[in-house]
Structure formats: C-alpha cells, structure tokens
Amino acid sequence: MSTRRNYLKILVSGPYASGKTTFVKTVATSSLLTTEVPVSTLYESQVKQYTTIAFDYGKTNVDGVDVYLFGTPGQTRLQFMWRVLSAGMHGYIFIVDGTSMLHVLRSRAVYEYMKSLGDYPHVVAVSKQDLPNSVKPSIVAQLFGISPGSVMPLVTHDRSSALTVLKRIVEIVRESTDQPFFK
Questions:
Q1: Which of 6, 18, 45, 177 could form a disulfide with 95 if both were Cys (CB 3.0 to 4.6 A apart)?
Q2: The CATH number of the domain covering residues in 7-176
Q3: pLDDT of 60-93, one tens digit each?
C-alpha cells in the first residue's frame, strides 16, 4: 500500500540572472533566500549585486497541494548543486532570460544539462517579458527544439504571471504521473 503525499518538490533552475530568486520570492508564502554579496566576477557584478550561493527555498500552496520550491544557483561553477537539489524533485521550471538572443542561446547548454538529470515534467519560462524587445516564447521553443506549449512567458516580479507558470508545472506533474501524490 502506498502512502499519499500531498506535496510537490519543484526545482527552479536556469542560468545566471534569469530571475530564479525573484520567482521564488514572488510566489512563495514563506521563503529562505541564500544570496550573498559580492558576486564572484566582474561580469556578474555588472549584471546584479547579489547572487545565490547555495539555493533559494520557498513554500506555497497551489490548489490544495503544498509546493516546495528549490531555486538553484545560476553559475556553472556551482553546477554540483543542481544535481544535489534535483534529488527527489517531481518536476522543474527552467527560467530563460529573454532580454537578448545571446542570453537565450547561452541558456540552452544549461537546459540540456537539466534534461540529462532525467525525464522530469517541466516548463520553460521566458522571463523579462515586460521589457522591450524581449525574445518571445515561440522563438525559444524553436531554438530549444521543444513544443511551443512547453514554453511560457514570465514576468518574475509579477505575482499573477509567476503563479500562472507555477500552476502549469503543477498541472503537468499531475497529468504525467501515476504516483499517488494527491488526495
């Protein structure tokens, strides 16, 4: 007899400065963020002031299901944490910085790494859609070679936008599993 668990572990991953920490802060009802200053390189310091050094954690509830969010650090030097944090996950949100085609193209290698961890349900969220000339989700789908239905627009600091992405991954996990996670 299996035990029903009414929770999900969702990883929030993506490259450096894509919006992972902001996403977790925006959707979580409680959170713990492990950001540190200064960032480690000149390039990083020109992009943002703080960086995630271990992981971000947040908890919220989506349609009666507790969702535990684990945000990964974005620097490849901390890639070992991506594998550690992925243990036991039910799915993930992969956030792509949509401010330039260069950012999108660079994020593909990180996305391929995430896919190498296993065949987990996931969505790709293209962030910063509120900025002018942002790359559209349909373009990201083409570049990543995935279904346009798997790619969503995202404004990480907008609660409604972020919750739409979170609800979609919960829905995909529910549809894709025969595990008794839900009452």
A1: 18
A2: 3.40.50.300
A3: 999 999 999 998 876 665 666 677 778 899 999 9
Residue 136 vs residues 18, 97, 118, 151, 162: alpha-carbon distances, Å: 15, 11, 27, 9, 16
Q: Which amino acid is at 139?
A: I
pLDDT classification of 41: cutoffs 50, 70, 90: low
Helix (H, G, I), strand (E, B) or coil at 58: strand
The residue among 69, 167, 83, 173 whose CA lies nearest residue 121 is 173
Q: How far is CA 122 from CA 31, 119, 175, in A?
A: 22, 9, 12
Peptide bond into 38 cis (omega under 30): yes
User: In the structure encoding, which two tokens stand for residue 62, read together?
Assistant: 């989506």
Q: How far is CA 24 from CA 11, 39, 56, 98, 156, in A?
A: 10, 20, 7, 18, 9
Which class for 11: exposed (0-12), middle (13-18), buried (19 or more C-beta within 10 A)? buried
Domain ranges of the chain: 7-176
**Gap between the Cα atoms of 25 and 58, Å rounded:** 7
CB distance 94 to 125 below 8 Å: yes
Q: Tens digit of pLDDT for each residue in 132-154?
A: 999 999 999 999 999 999 999 99
Q: Is the pTM of this model over 0.90?
A: no
